[in-house]
Structures are given as C-alpha cells and as structure tokens.
Specification:
With about 500 residues, the protein is an all-alpha fold. The protein contains 18 helices and no strands. The longest helix has about 40 residues. The chain is globular. The N terminus and C terminus are likely disordered. This is Protein DETOXIFICATION.
C-alpha cells in the first residue's frame, strides 16, 4: 500500500498540467498516510518541477536585459572616454531611476494577475494588464520631463558642463524606452502569472543579438554616435514589447486570459495607482540603496581607488543579483498562484523551497568570489593596486551576495501576497534610517573608509532581511488565502465580468 501511494503521489511529476500539479501538491502536503520524509521529498521534487521552469528563464531574461544595456555602454565607450562616462552616468543616474519606478509599479499587476490566475478568474488578467499599461504610461509623462531637463539636474549635482551635456544627449535617446517599460513590464507580469516565461527568454535573446548588430551599424557605420546608441537601445526594447504582444495574440493558450482591448481597463485606475505606489517605493528603495553606496564612497578623501574597487564589486554583485531577481519573480508567481487557488500549505511550502534553493546558490557564489578574490578585478582592469583593493572588499561582497540570495526572494513573496506597502515602510527604516547613517558614521567618523560605509549598509540589509523572515515565517497562510479571496472579490466587483 505504501509503495502504491508513493507512486500515485509521484505520478504528477511525469505528466500533469500546472493546475493539476498545484492541486496535487496541496493534497500531497495534507496526506498523512505517507511517512513524513517521503511526503516532504515528494513535495520538494514536485515544487522544484514547478519552480525551476519559472526561475531559470526569468534569470536569463534579467541577465539578457542587463547585457543589452552593457552592450550599449560598450559601443558608446569605443567612441571615447567622454562618451563612456556620459553613457554610464545616463544609465546609472537617470535610466536606473525610471527602470526601478516602472518595474516596481509593474509589481502591482504581478500580485493581481498571479492571484486571479490561481483563482481561475482568467478573464480579469487581460484587464489588469491593460490597466497597468495605462497607469505606467501616464507615469511616463513626468519621467519624460525629468529626461528632458536632465542636464540642469546633473549640473546641480556637481557634474561638469561637458559631461552633463554629453549625458543629456544619451538620455534623450532613452525617452522612447520609458514607454517601452510601461508596456513591457505589465506584459511580462501577465505572462509570468500564467507560468509562461520561456517565450520571453527566446525573444530577449534574439533581440540581444539584433541589438548588437544594430548598435554596430548605427553607431559606427551610420555615424549617429552617442544618440544613436541610446536610440538603438530604445528600439530594441520596443522590439521585445511588440514580439511579446504578438505572441499573446497568436498563441492559443491565452484565449481565456486575453479577450482583446476593453474600456473596462479605464475603470478603477486610482485603486490600481495606490497599489502600484507601494510596489514602486518598495522596489525603488532597494534598487537605489547600493547606488547610494557608490555616491557616498565618492565623498571620501582621494576616492579614486575606492571608487574603482567598489565599481568592480558592484558590477559583480549586479550581475549575480539577476539570479536572486529571477527567484524573486518565481516566488511571486508561485505564492500568488497558490493563494489564489486556495492552497495555504502549498504557498507556505513554496516559500521554504525557493528560499532554501536561492540561499544555497548564493552561498556557492560567495565561496567562488572568495576563492577568486585576488584575480576578479582583472576582468575589468589590469591594475595591481585595484586588484588588491578589490581583494580587500571581497568579504563584504561575499556577505552581500548571501543576503541577495534571500532578500529578493522574500520581496517576491511579499509581492505574491500583496504586502508591498508594508515592505516599503520596512525598507525606509532599515535602509535609510539605519544602513546609510551607520555606513556614514563608520566610514567617516571612525575613518574606516569604504569598508565602513559598506559594513553599515550591510547592517541595514541584514536587519531588513531578518524582519522579512520573521514576518514571512509567522504568516498565517490560511488567513492569507482568505485575504486574497477578499481582494479579488473587491476588484472583481468594480466591473462586470467579461464573458468568454
């Protein structure tokens, strides 16, 4: 009997749909007839089957998008040192602000679409996506004003007139990218909520190849220089948007979730704005946090060596953070789907599995970084002095990587549950109430330099992570299921259901 039960439990691992597998996971976790170890092992395998096809493509999408921006800066850099500095300043100082804001606001549709899909309210997903596109497009208007007047803003921040002028030219070419973000992120979350991630990976990979060729053609052969490089990046983002939307139109598996354009998308916009605002603040505070580290480091006496070393470390951390960001997306989808489906045990179990898996990968990254600490910098520069400085900072980098293996996943769980506003308050207190001030005290008052600044900011991240762990593992998941049902009912009553 025991072997028959186990075979019955493992059968969905071989052939079952997503909905069936979700249901079987809840049944498996509730099945006390199986020995505890076998039940947990089978449930883990089942959860990994659901989780990895979400996380792996999501990680690749974020890495590819990051590489598109890097390719653009590389082509700009070959035009000269001024153009390289302008592209880096425009990307880090202006474009990253828009990216964080738009991606954060897009997390609202991630919560609603994920929970609605789990609850099988399929007709609402297309409405939520359209509503998010409208809200994000309107948000793009003030961002466009910021882009247009970026030169005086950069001058106000103390940049030289020559660099500010060149950076402004680069930023002007990124204005169309704002509206690509406004459309792309809702589409991306619409797809992720339905566990459809691989097509976005293929589209992004193909666009990266096209972007590289177009950048070479526009920047070098046609001679459009700095403005050409940023316009090409904007064009590539629009190619991704159009390709993903065409996929939604032609693929047969979206017949229930996409019913065409609807005027219902214009209703309930203010409620969506309020949910989006919490998401935007939550994510923006996280994205900007370590940018603050670089800015504060620039205030040290003779900061050039420290800035070179911290830039190398942040480049490595930024690349590896894409792994945590991919698990963030997967955690959000899994938790929101399970809550929407009314599966509290599956939601809780998914949280445990994704955190453990991401943590193990992060520890592995940290070990590799520590083993290679003496040679890591040579991928970026040939200087031995910088290499020694990077080596000294690698323990801080390793600790940051471990935290980045847990913190983004917990943020993904928060998005899946709809806790964005709560996490935004936690981020303000931990990051900017503790981390930044503590880093400044250690770096300047105690004369510990960049190590002190980074230590303080690690303290802020650690406190935030501990608080999120405490909240997550004290969560009453049965209550969260009820909250999700109430949220969907409230949103559902705001407009008539679309008949399929």
């Amino acid at each position: 009997m025991e072997s028959e039960s186990e075979a019955e439990v493992l059968q969905p691992l071989l052939n079952s749909s997503a909905h069936t597998t979700d249901s079987r996971l809840e049944e498996l976790l509730s099945d006390t007839t199986l020995p505890c170890f076998k039940r947990l092992l089978s449930a883990t395998l089942l959860e990994l089957k659901l989780l990895l096809p979400l996380a792996a493509p999501a990680i690749l999408v974020y890495i590819i998008n990051n590489l598109m921006s890097s390719v653009t800066r590389a082509f700009a850099g070959h035009l000269g040192n001024l153009q390289l500095a302008a592209a880096n300043l425009g990307n880090s100082g202006i474009q990253l602000f828009a990216f964080g804001l738009m991606l954060g606001m897009g997390s609202a549709v991630e919560t609603l679409c994920g929970q609605a899909y789990g609850a099988k309210k399929h007709d609402m997903l297309g409405i939520y996506m359209q509503r998010a596109i409208i809200v994000l497009s309107i948000t793009g208007i003030p961002l466009t004003v910021v882009y247009i007047f970026c030169k005086p803003l950069l001058l106000l921040l103390g940049e030289s007139s020559e660099l500010a002028s060149a950076a402004a030219v680069f930023v002007y070419g990124l204005i169309p990218q704002i509206y690509a973000y406004a459309v792309n992120f809702p589409i991306q979350k619409f797809l992720q909520a339905q566990s459809v991630v691989a097509p976005s990976t293929y589209i992004s990979a193909a666009t990266l190849l096209l972007h590289t060729g177009l950048s070479w053609l526009v920047v070098y052969k046609l001679g459009f220089g700095l403005i050409g490089s940023s316009l090409t990046l904007s064009l590539s983002w629009w190619i991704i948007v159009v390709a993903q939307f065409l996929y939604i139109l032609v693929a047969p598996n979206f017949k229930k979730t996409w019913n065409g354009f609807s005027v219902k998308a214009f209703s309930g916009l203010w409620d969506f704005v309020k949910l989006s605002a919490g998401s935007a603040v939550m994510l923006c505070l996280e994205i900007w946090y370590f940018q603050v580290l670089v800015l504060i480091t620039g205030l040290l006496d003779n900061p050039q060596l420290s800035l070179d070393a911290i830039s190398v470390c942040m480049s490595i951390a930024g690349l590896l953070l894409q792994i945590g960001t991919g698990f963030n997306a997967a955690a959000s989808v899994r938790v929101s789907n399970e809550l929407g489906a009314g599966h509290p045990k599956s939601a809780a179990f998914s949280v445990i599995v994704v955190n453990v898996l991401s943590f193990v990968i992060a520890v592995t990254e940290a070990i590799v970084v520590l083993e290679l600490r003496h040679v890591l910098s040579y991928a970026f520069t040939d200087g031995e002095t910088v290499a020694n400085a990077v080596s000294d900072l690698c323990p801080y980098l390793a600790f940051t990587l471990i935290l980045n293996g847990v913190q983004p996943v917990l943020s993904g769980v928060a998005v899946g549950c709809g806790w964005q506003t709560l996490v935004a308050y936690i981020n303000v207190g931990c990051y900017y109430g503790l981390g930044v001030p503590l880093g400044c005290v250690l770096g300047f008052k105690f004369d510990l330099g960049v190590q002190g600044i980074w230590s303080g900011m690690i303290g802020g991240t650690m406190l935030q992570t501990i608080i999120l762990l405490w909240i997550t593992f004290r969560t009453d998941w049965n209550k969260e299921v009820n909250t999700t049902k109430e949220r969907l009912d409230v949103w559902d009553k705001k407009e008539p259901r679309v008949q399929t």
